[in-house]
Design goal:
By secondary structure, the protein is an alpha/beta fold. It folds into two domains: about 130 residues, Aspartate Aminotransferase, domain 1 (Alpha-Beta Complex), CATH 3.90.1150; about 260 residues, Aspartate Aminotransferase, domain 2 (3-Layer(aba) Sandwich), CATH 3.40.640. It is about 35% helix and about 10% strand. The strands form three sheets. Strands 2-8-7-6-5-3-4 form a seven-stranded mixed beta sheet, with helices on both faces. A four-stranded antiparallel beta sheet has the order 9-10-13-12. Helix 3 runs parallel beside helix 10 and helix 4 packs parallel to helix 5. The protein is globular, with a radius of gyration of 22 Å. It starts with a helix and ends in a 15-residue tail after the last helix. Bound molecules: pyridoxal-5'-phosphate. The site of pyridoxal-5'-phosphate has 13 residues, from helix 4 and helix 5.
Length: about 425
Protein backbone atom coordinates (compact mmCIF):
# COMPACT_ATOMS: atom_id res chain seq x y z
CA UNK A 1 0.00 0.00 0.00
CA UNK A 2 2.85 2.40 0.80
CA UNK A 3 4.26 1.61 -2.61
CA UNK A 4 0.82 2.18 -4.17
CA UNK A 5 0.60 5.60 -2.56
CA UNK A 6 4.02 6.49 -3.87
CA UNK A 7 3.02 5.34 -7.35
CA UNK A 8 -0.18 7.32 -7.09
CA UNK A 9 1.79 10.44 -6.12
CA UNK A 10 4.11 10.00 -9.07
CA UNK A 11 1.16 9.55 -11.41
CA UNK A 12 -0.60 12.65 -10.11
CA UNK A 13 2.60 14.65 -10.53
CA UNK A 14 3.03 13.36 -14.06
CA UNK A 15 -0.49 14.44 -15.03
CA UNK A 16 -0.37 17.75 -13.20
CA UNK A 17 -1.18 20.62 -15.58
CA UNK A 18 0.37 23.17 -13.20
CA UNK A 19 3.67 21.37 -12.60
CA UNK A 20 5.75 23.78 -14.69
CA UNK A 21 5.11 26.63 -12.26
CA UNK A 22 7.27 24.98 -9.60
CA UNK A 23 10.39 25.99 -11.52
CA UNK A 24 9.40 29.62 -11.16
CA UNK A 25 9.81 29.52 -7.38
CA UNK A 26 12.85 29.61 -5.15
CA UNK A 27 12.62 26.36 -3.25
CA UNK A 28 15.43 25.23 -1.00
CA UNK A 29 17.04 22.03 -2.13
CA UNK A 30 15.84 19.11 -0.05
CA UNK A 31 13.16 21.08 1.74
CA UNK A 32 9.43 20.34 1.72
CA UNK A 33 7.69 23.64 2.31
CA UNK A 34 4.12 23.25 3.58
CA UNK A 35 3.70 26.73 5.04
CA UNK A 36 2.51 28.68 2.00
CA UNK A 37 -0.63 29.54 3.97
CA UNK A 38 1.49 31.66 6.32
CA UNK A 39 4.16 32.98 3.98
CA UNK A 40 4.20 31.99 0.32
CA UNK A 41 7.58 31.49 -1.35
CA UNK A 42 9.35 33.93 -3.65
CA UNK A 43 8.88 33.49 -7.39
CA UNK A 44 11.30 34.75 -10.00
CA UNK A 45 8.58 36.95 -11.44
CA UNK A 46 7.95 38.58 -8.05
CA UNK A 47 11.67 39.11 -7.62
CA UNK A 48 11.95 40.60 -11.07
CA UNK A 49 9.10 43.06 -10.49
CA UNK A 50 10.71 44.15 -7.23
CA UNK A 51 13.99 44.80 -9.01
CA UNK A 52 12.09 46.74 -11.67
CA UNK A 53 10.50 48.96 -9.01
CA UNK A 54 13.95 49.73 -7.64
CA UNK A 55 15.20 50.43 -11.16
CA UNK A 56 12.33 52.89 -11.69
CA UNK A 57 13.31 54.72 -8.55
CA UNK A 58 16.96 54.71 -9.67
CA UNK A 59 16.08 55.93 -13.15
CA UNK A 60 13.24 58.36 -12.63
CA UNK A 61 13.40 59.66 -9.06
CA UNK A 62 10.20 61.63 -8.41
CA UNK A 63 8.99 61.02 -11.97
CA UNK A 64 8.55 57.34 -11.11
CA UNK A 65 5.06 58.36 -9.96
CA UNK A 66 4.06 58.71 -13.59
CA UNK A 67 6.82 56.96 -15.58
CA UNK A 68 8.06 53.38 -15.98
CA UNK A 69 6.22 50.08 -16.44
CA UNK A 70 4.09 50.49 -13.34
CA UNK A 71 3.76 54.21 -12.54
CA UNK A 72 3.40 54.43 -8.77
CA UNK A 73 0.52 56.91 -8.83
CA UNK A 74 -1.90 54.31 -10.22
CA UNK A 75 -0.12 51.16 -8.98
CA UNK A 76 -2.65 50.32 -6.24
CA UNK A 77 -5.60 50.56 -8.60
CA UNK A 78 -3.84 48.62 -11.39
CA UNK A 79 -2.89 45.81 -9.02
CA UNK A 80 -6.46 45.86 -7.74
CA UNK A 81 -7.75 45.28 -11.28
CA UNK A 82 -5.37 42.35 -11.71
CA UNK A 83 -6.45 40.90 -8.36
CA UNK A 84 -10.16 41.14 -9.19
CA UNK A 85 -10.46 37.70 -10.90
CA UNK A 86 -9.12 36.00 -7.76
CA UNK A 87 -12.12 37.17 -5.79
CA UNK A 88 -14.78 37.52 -8.48
CA UNK A 89 -14.99 41.29 -8.30
CA UNK A 90 -15.43 44.03 -10.86
CA UNK A 91 -12.17 45.82 -11.62
CA UNK A 92 -13.05 49.04 -9.83
CA UNK A 93 -14.16 47.21 -6.69
CA UNK A 94 -10.61 46.29 -5.66
CA UNK A 95 -7.56 48.20 -4.52
CA UNK A 96 -4.23 46.95 -3.24
CA UNK A 97 -3.47 48.79 -0.03
CA UNK A 98 -2.73 48.43 3.67
CA UNK A 99 -2.76 45.26 5.71
CA UNK A 100 -5.70 43.16 6.85
CA UNK A 101 -5.91 44.88 10.20
CA UNK A 102 -5.52 48.42 8.83
CA UNK A 103 -8.07 47.70 6.10
CA UNK A 104 -10.49 46.24 8.65
CA UNK A 105 -10.25 49.45 10.63
CA UNK A 106 -11.10 51.36 7.48
CA UNK A 107 -13.99 49.05 6.56
CA UNK A 108 -15.55 49.09 10.02
CA UNK A 109 -15.11 52.85 10.27
CA UNK A 110 -16.86 53.13 6.90
CA UNK A 111 -19.68 50.60 7.28
CA UNK A 112 -20.54 50.50 10.97
CA UNK A 113 -23.07 53.22 11.68
CA UNK A 114 -24.71 52.18 14.92
CA UNK A 115 -27.97 53.63 16.21
CA UNK A 116 -30.28 52.88 19.13
CA UNK A 117 -31.75 49.75 17.56
CA UNK A 118 -29.04 48.44 15.29
CA UNK A 119 -25.61 48.43 16.83
CA UNK A 120 -24.10 44.97 17.22
CA UNK A 121 -21.13 43.56 15.35
CA UNK A 122 -21.14 39.81 14.82
CA UNK A 123 -17.86 37.88 14.51
CA UNK A 124 -17.12 34.31 15.60
CA UNK A 125 -15.40 32.83 18.59
CA UNK A 126 -12.69 31.18 16.50
CA UNK A 127 -11.73 34.43 14.79
CA UNK A 128 -8.14 35.62 14.36
CA UNK A 129 -7.20 37.92 17.28
CA UNK A 130 -6.23 40.95 15.19
CA UNK A 131 -9.65 41.03 13.50
CA UNK A 132 -11.29 41.06 16.94
CA UNK A 133 -8.94 43.78 18.18
CA UNK A 134 -9.93 45.99 15.25
CA UNK A 135 -13.62 45.42 15.99
CA UNK A 136 -13.09 46.18 19.67
CA UNK A 137 -11.34 49.50 18.98
CA UNK A 138 -13.92 50.58 16.44
CA UNK A 139 -16.74 49.85 18.91
CA UNK A 140 -14.89 51.76 21.62
CA UNK A 141 -14.34 54.73 19.31
CA UNK A 142 -18.09 54.90 18.78
CA UNK A 143 -18.78 54.63 22.51
CA UNK A 144 -20.08 51.05 22.47
CA UNK A 145 -18.70 48.58 25.00
CA UNK A 146 -17.26 45.54 23.14
CA UNK A 147 -18.28 43.30 26.03
CA UNK A 148 -21.89 44.07 25.10
CA UNK A 149 -21.90 44.92 21.41
CA UNK A 150 -19.39 42.44 19.99
CA UNK A 151 -21.21 39.14 19.54
CA UNK A 152 -19.41 35.95 18.61
CA UNK A 153 -20.96 33.00 16.83
CA UNK A 154 -20.27 29.99 19.06
CA UNK A 155 -18.52 26.89 17.76
CA UNK A 156 -19.95 23.47 18.63
CA UNK A 157 -16.65 21.60 18.43
CA UNK A 158 -14.00 24.28 18.98
CA UNK A 159 -12.82 23.97 15.36
CA UNK A 160 -15.68 24.72 12.99
CA UNK A 161 -18.73 26.97 12.76
CA UNK A 162 -22.18 25.79 11.65
CA UNK A 163 -24.22 27.86 9.21
CA UNK A 164 -27.16 27.41 11.57
CA UNK A 165 -25.18 28.93 14.44
CA UNK A 166 -24.35 31.92 12.26
CA UNK A 167 -27.97 32.32 11.27
CA UNK A 168 -29.27 32.10 14.80
CA UNK A 169 -26.74 34.73 15.91
CA UNK A 170 -28.03 37.30 13.42
CA UNK A 171 -30.84 39.47 14.75
CA UNK A 172 -32.47 42.82 14.04
CA UNK A 173 -29.77 44.34 16.24
CA UNK A 174 -26.95 43.10 13.99
CA UNK A 175 -25.45 46.05 12.14
CA UNK A 176 -22.36 44.32 10.77
CA UNK A 177 -21.32 40.70 10.21
CA UNK A 178 -17.61 40.10 9.90
CA UNK A 179 -16.38 36.57 9.31
CA UNK A 180 -13.42 34.77 7.78
CA UNK A 181 -13.97 32.99 4.45
CA UNK A 182 -11.73 30.17 5.69
CA UNK A 183 -11.08 29.65 9.41
CA UNK A 184 -7.36 30.06 9.96
CA UNK A 185 -7.02 27.08 12.29
CA UNK A 186 -9.24 24.27 11.02
CA UNK A 187 -9.28 25.41 7.40
CA UNK A 188 -13.09 25.29 7.23
CA UNK A 189 -14.51 27.23 4.26
CA UNK A 190 -17.72 29.06 5.18
CA UNK A 191 -20.70 29.30 2.79
CA UNK A 192 -20.25 32.98 1.90
CA UNK A 193 -23.23 33.25 -0.44
CA UNK A 194 -25.71 31.80 2.06
CA UNK A 195 -24.40 33.95 4.89
CA UNK A 196 -24.73 37.13 2.84
CA UNK A 197 -28.24 36.27 1.69
CA UNK A 198 -29.37 35.60 5.21
CA UNK A 199 -27.71 38.63 6.83
CA UNK A 200 -29.06 40.97 4.17
CA UNK A 201 -32.59 39.96 5.15
CA UNK A 202 -31.78 41.67 8.45
CA UNK A 203 -30.26 44.65 6.62
CA UNK A 204 -26.86 43.90 8.09
CA UNK A 205 -23.68 44.80 6.21
CA UNK A 206 -21.52 41.72 5.54
CA UNK A 207 -17.75 41.71 5.24
CA UNK A 208 -15.28 38.85 4.90
CA UNK A 209 -11.63 38.37 5.74
CA UNK A 210 -10.18 36.37 2.84
CA UNK A 211 -6.72 35.80 4.38
CA UNK A 212 -6.92 32.03 3.98
CA UNK A 213 -8.92 31.78 0.79
CA UNK A 214 -7.46 34.32 -1.64
CA UNK A 215 -5.17 32.53 -4.04
CA UNK A 216 -6.49 29.11 -2.97
CA UNK A 217 -10.26 29.26 -3.49
CA UNK A 218 -12.27 31.10 -6.20
CA UNK A 219 -14.85 33.63 -5.03
CA UNK A 220 -17.75 35.51 -6.58
CA UNK A 221 -17.89 38.45 -4.23
CA UNK A 222 -19.73 40.78 -6.58
CA UNK A 223 -22.34 38.23 -7.61
CA UNK A 224 -22.84 37.09 -4.02
CA UNK A 225 -23.42 40.68 -3.04
CA UNK A 226 -20.70 40.75 -0.38
CA UNK A 227 -20.49 44.33 0.91
CA UNK A 228 -16.77 44.43 1.59
CA UNK A 229 -13.72 42.18 2.00
CA UNK A 230 -10.11 42.49 3.11
CA UNK A 231 -7.10 40.21 2.71
CA UNK A 232 -3.33 39.95 2.76
CA UNK A 233 -1.24 38.91 -0.22
CA UNK A 234 1.67 37.32 1.59
CA UNK A 235 -0.02 33.96 2.21
CA UNK A 236 -1.22 31.98 -0.84
CA UNK A 237 -0.62 34.95 -3.16
CA UNK A 238 3.15 34.85 -2.56
CA UNK A 239 3.80 38.59 -2.48
CA UNK A 240 6.42 38.44 0.28
CA UNK A 241 6.75 39.34 3.96
CA UNK A 242 4.66 42.39 4.75
CA UNK A 243 3.44 42.49 1.14
CA UNK A 244 0.66 45.04 0.68
CA UNK A 245 -2.87 43.70 1.30
CA UNK A 246 -6.09 44.40 -0.53
CA UNK A 247 -9.68 45.43 -0.08
CA UNK A 248 -12.91 45.08 -2.00
CA UNK A 249 -15.98 47.28 -1.76
CA UNK A 250 -19.13 46.40 -3.72
CA UNK A 251 -20.05 48.92 -6.42
CA UNK A 252 -23.35 49.68 -4.72
CA UNK A 253 -21.37 51.45 -1.98
CA UNK A 254 -19.13 53.47 -4.28
CA UNK A 255 -19.29 57.24 -4.03
CA UNK A 256 -19.83 57.23 -0.26
CA UNK A 257 -17.46 58.97 2.12
CA UNK A 258 -14.92 56.54 3.65
CA UNK A 259 -14.76 56.41 7.44
CA UNK A 260 -11.06 57.24 7.48
CA UNK A 261 -10.07 59.91 4.98
CA UNK A 262 -6.61 60.30 3.51
CA UNK A 263 -5.29 62.04 0.44
CA UNK A 264 -4.59 58.84 -1.52
CA UNK A 265 -8.31 58.10 -1.35
CA UNK A 266 -8.95 61.22 -3.40
CA UNK A 267 -10.33 61.27 -6.90
CA UNK A 268 -7.08 61.09 -8.89
CA UNK A 269 -7.63 64.31 -10.80
CA UNK A 270 -8.34 66.21 -7.58
CA UNK A 271 -5.59 64.87 -5.35
CA UNK A 272 -2.96 67.41 -6.25
CA UNK A 273 -5.35 70.37 -6.07
CA UNK A 274 -4.45 70.19 -2.37
CA UNK A 275 -7.92 71.34 -1.29
CA UNK A 276 -8.90 71.07 2.36
CA UNK A 277 -12.21 69.45 1.40
CA UNK A 278 -11.83 65.76 0.60
CA UNK A 279 -13.15 64.52 -2.76
CA UNK A 280 -13.21 60.70 -2.58
CA UNK A 281 -12.49 58.54 -5.61
CA UNK A 282 -15.63 57.06 -7.15
CA UNK A 283 -14.44 53.49 -6.69
CA UNK A 284 -12.73 51.25 -4.12
CA UNK A 285 -9.67 53.52 -4.37
CA UNK A 286 -11.48 55.91 -1.99
CA UNK A 287 -10.60 53.64 0.93
CA UNK A 288 -6.85 54.14 0.62
CA UNK A 289 -5.35 56.38 3.24
CA UNK A 290 -1.74 57.40 2.64
CA UNK A 291 1.00 56.98 0.06
CA UNK A 292 1.09 53.42 -1.36
CA UNK A 293 3.80 51.06 -0.17
CA UNK A 294 5.34 50.77 -3.60
CA UNK A 295 8.21 48.46 -2.74
CA UNK A 296 5.94 46.12 -0.78
CA UNK A 297 3.42 46.07 -3.64
CA UNK A 298 5.93 45.49 -6.44
CA UNK A 299 6.30 41.69 -6.00
CA UNK A 300 2.54 41.29 -6.34
CA UNK A 301 2.61 42.28 -10.02
CA UNK A 302 4.89 39.31 -10.74
CA UNK A 303 2.96 36.93 -8.56
CA UNK A 304 -0.41 37.89 -10.03
CA UNK A 305 0.85 37.22 -13.53
CA UNK A 306 1.41 33.60 -12.45
CA UNK A 307 -2.16 33.42 -11.15
CA UNK A 308 -3.46 34.86 -14.42
CA UNK A 309 -1.71 32.08 -16.34
CA UNK A 310 -2.47 29.25 -13.96
CA UNK A 311 -6.10 30.29 -13.39
CA UNK A 312 -7.70 30.18 -9.97
CA UNK A 313 -10.08 27.36 -10.95
CA UNK A 314 -7.24 25.05 -11.93
CA UNK A 315 -5.43 26.02 -8.72
CA UNK A 316 -8.50 25.13 -6.66
CA UNK A 317 -8.90 21.83 -8.46
CA UNK A 318 -5.32 20.88 -7.70
CA UNK A 319 -5.55 22.17 -4.15
CA UNK A 320 -8.53 19.89 -3.45
CA UNK A 321 -6.84 16.96 -5.11
CA UNK A 322 -3.72 17.61 -3.02
CA UNK A 323 -5.57 17.91 0.28
CA UNK A 324 -7.54 14.76 -0.64
CA UNK A 325 -4.28 12.95 -1.28
CA UNK A 326 -2.76 14.28 1.93
CA UNK A 327 -5.78 13.04 3.89
CA UNK A 328 -5.50 9.64 2.26
CA UNK A 329 -1.81 9.31 3.16
CA UNK A 330 -2.40 10.59 6.68
CA UNK A 331 -5.22 8.13 7.13
CA UNK A 332 -3.10 5.27 5.95
CA UNK A 333 0.21 6.07 7.65
CA UNK A 334 -0.67 7.93 10.83
CA UNK A 335 -3.59 5.90 12.12
CA UNK A 336 -1.71 4.71 15.22
CA UNK A 337 -0.53 8.04 16.54
CA UNK A 338 -3.44 10.00 18.02
CA UNK A 339 -3.73 12.54 15.21
CA UNK A 340 -7.14 14.05 14.66
CA UNK A 341 -7.98 15.75 11.37
CA UNK A 342 -10.07 18.82 12.16
CA UNK A 343 -10.47 20.09 8.58
CA UNK A 344 -13.84 19.29 7.00
CA UNK A 345 -13.83 16.32 4.61
CA UNK A 346 -16.43 17.91 2.37
CA UNK A 347 -14.89 19.82 -0.56
CA UNK A 348 -17.41 22.63 -0.32
CA UNK A 349 -16.32 23.24 3.28
CA UNK A 350 -12.57 22.89 2.83
CA UNK A 351 -10.04 25.67 2.29
CA UNK A 352 -6.43 25.11 1.23
CA UNK A 353 -4.80 23.46 4.22
CA UNK A 354 -5.18 20.42 6.44
CA UNK A 355 -5.09 20.82 10.20
CA UNK A 356 -4.14 18.01 12.56
CA UNK A 357 -4.70 18.08 16.27
CA UNK A 358 -2.16 16.32 18.48
CA UNK A 359 -1.22 16.79 22.16
CA UNK A 360 2.49 16.99 21.21
CA UNK A 361 1.91 19.25 18.19
CA UNK A 362 4.63 21.76 19.11
CA UNK A 363 7.40 19.18 19.47
CA UNK A 364 6.23 17.32 16.38
CA UNK A 365 6.51 20.53 14.34
CA UNK A 366 10.02 21.12 15.62
CA UNK A 367 10.98 17.55 14.73
CA UNK A 368 9.54 18.01 11.24
CA UNK A 369 11.51 21.22 10.75
CA UNK A 370 14.58 19.39 11.89
CA UNK A 371 13.95 16.94 9.04
CA UNK A 372 13.49 19.80 6.54
CA UNK A 373 9.71 19.64 6.35
CA UNK A 374 8.18 23.07 7.08
CA UNK A 375 4.75 22.85 8.73
CA UNK A 376 3.07 25.48 10.83
CA UNK A 377 2.10 25.23 14.48
CA UNK A 378 -0.85 26.97 16.07
CA UNK A 379 -1.08 26.91 19.81
CA UNK A 380 -1.97 24.86 21.76
CA UNK A 381 -2.16 21.65 19.72
CA UNK A 382 -2.55 22.23 15.99
CA UNK A 383 -0.32 21.32 13.04
CA UNK A 384 -1.24 22.96 9.74
CA UNK A 385 -0.01 21.43 6.48
CA UNK A 386 -0.62 23.50 3.37
CA UNK A 387 0.14 22.23 -0.11
CA UNK A 388 0.67 25.23 -2.40
CA UNK A 389 -0.67 24.10 -5.80
CA UNK A 390 1.82 26.32 -7.62
CA UNK A 391 4.89 24.68 -6.10
CA UNK A 392 4.07 21.61 -4.00
CA UNK A 393 4.21 18.15 -5.56
CA UNK A 394 2.18 15.08 -4.56
CA UNK A 395 5.44 13.27 -4.03
CA UNK A 396 6.46 15.85 -1.43
CA UNK A 397 3.17 15.36 0.39
CA UNK A 398 3.73 11.64 0.47
CA UNK A 399 7.29 12.05 1.72
CA UNK A 400 6.36 14.60 4.36
CA UNK A 401 3.82 12.21 5.90
CA UNK A 402 6.26 9.31 5.68
CA UNK A 403 8.81 11.39 7.60
CA UNK A 404 6.13 12.30 10.10
CA UNK A 405 5.37 8.63 10.61
CA UNK A 406 9.04 7.98 11.22
CA UNK A 407 9.22 10.81 13.76
CA UNK A 408 6.26 9.29 15.60
CA UNK A 409 7.45 5.73 15.44
CA UNK A 410 10.94 6.56 16.70
CA UNK A 411 9.52 9.08 19.21
CA UNK A 412 12.09 11.50 17.85
CA UNK A 413 9.71 14.38 18.61
CA UNK A 414 10.16 13.78 22.33
CA UNK A 415 13.62 15.32 22.07
CA UNK A 416 11.99 18.70 21.43
CA UNK A 417 10.12 20.80 23.99
CA UNK A 418 6.35 20.91 23.51
CA UNK A 419 6.17 24.71 23.57
CA UNK A 420 5.99 27.17 20.72
CA UNK A 421 8.88 29.31 19.55
CA UNK A 422 8.24 33.06 19.13
CA UNK A 423 6.53 32.78 15.73
CA UNK A 424 5.18 29.26 15.64
C1 LIG B 1 -2.89 36.43 8.48
C2 LIG B 1 -4.12 36.99 9.08
C3 LIG B 1 -4.16 38.30 9.59
C4 LIG B 1 -2.95 39.19 9.60
O1 LIG B 1 -3.31 40.54 9.56
P1 LIG B 1 -2.28 41.64 9.07
O2 LIG B 1 -2.93 42.93 9.40
O3 LIG B 1 -2.06 41.44 7.60
O4 LIG B 1 -1.01 41.45 9.83
C5 LIG B 1 -5.37 38.76 10.07
N1 LIG B 1 -6.48 37.99 10.07
C6 LIG B 1 -6.46 36.73 9.60
C7 LIG B 1 -7.71 35.91 9.61
C8 LIG B 1 -5.28 36.18 9.12
O5 LIG B 1 -5.26 34.92 8.69
Amino acid sequence: MVIELLEKAKGLDRDDELKAFKDEFYIKEGQIYLDGNSLGLLSKRAENETLKALASWKEYGIDGWTEGDHPWFTLSEKLGETSAPLIGAEKNEVVVTGSITANLHQMIASFYHPNEEKNEILADELNFPSDLYAIQSQLELKGFDPAVYLKKVPSQDGQTILLDSIKSSITEKTALVLLPSVLYRSGQLLPIKEIVEYAHRYSAIVGFDLAHSIGAVPHKLHEWNVDFAVWCNYKYVNSGPGGTGGLYVHQKHHGKMPGLKGWFGSAKEKQFDMEHTFSPAGDAGAYQIGTPHVLSSAPLAGSLSIFEEAGIHRIREKSLQQTDFLLEVIDYLLGDYQFKVVTPQNHSERGGHIALEHPAAASICKALKNRNVIPDFRSPNLIRLAPAPLYTTYRELYEAVLLLKDIMESKEYEQHGNTRNIIA
